[in-house]
Write a structure and sequence with these properties.
single chain, mainly beta, 3-stranded antiparallel beta sheet, 1 helix, Alkylphosphonate utilization protein, YjdM_C
Length: 102
């Protein structure tokens, strides 16, 4: 069933009656998580980031040096973590506070 202009729902947060289309838009926006880097820039899937400090990678025996470029990140659903690939490291997850958008 598609909403028409006659369909209204009660929005408990605002205490007002709003159209069904507007309610659907709010529900979709609520499911979206914003991930921000150390400088406050909004990150998205596919962005490239740069590490802002040396990071020791647990289990890999490697250190990502400050200034290392990580290409094509993926958001995980956690506002503080990003999933990425780097040569020789499988399943790398970085904290957003240690990277900056490239």
């Amino acid at each position: 069933m598609t909403p028409t202009n006659d369909d209204y729902v009660y929005d408990e947060t605002s205490g007002e009656w709003i159209s069904a289309e507007e309610a659907a838009g709010k529900a979709q926006d609520a499911g979206r998580i914003e991930v921000r880097d150390s400088a406050g820039n909004l990150l998205a899937d596919g962005d490239s980031v740069i590490t802002i400090k040396d990071l020791k990678v647990k289990g890999a025996g490697q250190t990502l040096r400050k200034g290392t470029v990580i290409k094509s990140i993926r958001l995980t659903g956690d506002p503080q973590e990003i999933d990425c690939r780097y040569e020789g490291i499988k399943g790398l997850v970085l904290r957003a506070e240690f990277v900056r958008k490239h």
